Amino acid sequence: MRVVTPRPTRTDWPRPPSCLTASQLRLPPENARITVAGLVILRQRPGTAKGVIFLTLEDETGAVNVIVWRKMYEKFRRAVIAGRMLRVTGRLQREGDVIHVIAEQIEDISPLLDQLLATAPETLSSEPQTG
Q: Would you say the C-alpha torsion 83, 85, 87, 91 has a positive or negative sign?
């Protein structure tokens, strides 16, 4: 009998506990306190934004827009600047079809990326497979 090891799927990635995915952000009511997590794909600090930073996080279901006010940036500066993967807790804000999370707490969870690499299937390797 041959034992088959299941290949990791997109849902197997190391999701931090109690986080909503991007696709679930329409479920909570306006101003609900929620937590999201994802890879940082964009950081913007426009000169006209008076110290506000805009982050875009991406998870396996889509993108999450995060607004970091100056006071929160000063408190969580290291995570905002250096984090490759963040967990953000804050208030949900909707403006039409646009959804933002107003950051209240930001945590750098980049070490979880090592778990992603450890579970990645060998077929993602750029080197040709022989055998």
A: positive
